Amino acid sequence: MLYSLEENGGIPDAQLVILTDGLLASDKDMLQACAKRKLHFIDIEGDLLSKISKLRTTSYWSRATYARLYLPELIADRHCRMLYLDADTLIRKSLAPLFDLALDGKAVAAVPYDDPARFNPPLARAASTPYFNAGVLLVDIDAWNAQDYTARINKLLQSRSFDFLDQDVLNLATEGNFFHLAGCWNAQKGWEDYSEASIVHFTHAKPNTKECEHPEKATYLEYRKQTPWRSARLITKRDRRIRTLLRSIRRKWQWFAAFAR
Fold first, then answer.
1. What is the pLDDT of residue 58?
2. Residue 207: which domain range?
3. Residue 256: is its pLDDT beyond 70?
4. In the prediction, which pLDDT does 245 show?
5. What is the dihedral of CA 15, 21, 27, 33, to 10 degrees?
6. What sign does the CA torsion over 203, 207, 211, 214 have?
7. DSSP letter string, 53-119
8. CATH number at residue 127
9. SS3 category, 26
């Protein structure tokens, strides 16, 4: 994602902020090697950690999933727009148009699903209420803070658990009132022509796995050749089972540590 952003993103003056949880200095050095500008790392610790340490995580949703909900508050002094990108995205075209869009006073812009009815019933909302994928999220920081979205999110996180965790919480917080981006800004599985996509989002099998058959897997691997992960082998199902086990052990340790404080 980082390498493709630098190559194709068209936003040389933007500050790149990476949210991290337990990365070693060597990990950060490898990430820095993918970028042409200095990266700014925000580690999950201190006050940020205290807000999320007791929330439910899974093998797919880490603490960083929750921590990113607080990014607009953490960088509130910028008075600008924040474009959040999941790590499993690939940037194909300039992102500059996103920073010139008129958001009509809305704090959040995202790509809505065509079939919101499959997400809304567990949230006790009308089936037709717009529901967005949160892997690509454009945020007007001033509007976010003026409308106190962080307080809304805090209240929701403490109220119950959610099937889609941070994505459900973000959709409930916006109450369906978000700016609808065109699908090219978050082209997921089934997109008709990925050559027309500005951001490709690998929402199913990831392109660093053997079973992935995504049309953009070859593009991903070409970009990866230019990074420190150029020689990494493709991940197998066995690798993922072992990783899931290790994450489970780590998650339980984090849970016990949080409640022992």
1. 73
2. 2-260
3. no
4. 75
5. -10
6. positive
7. TTS---SSS-HHHHHGGGHHHHTGGG-SEEEEE-TTEEE-S--GGGGT---TT-SEEEPBPS-GGGT
8. 3.90.550.10
9. helix
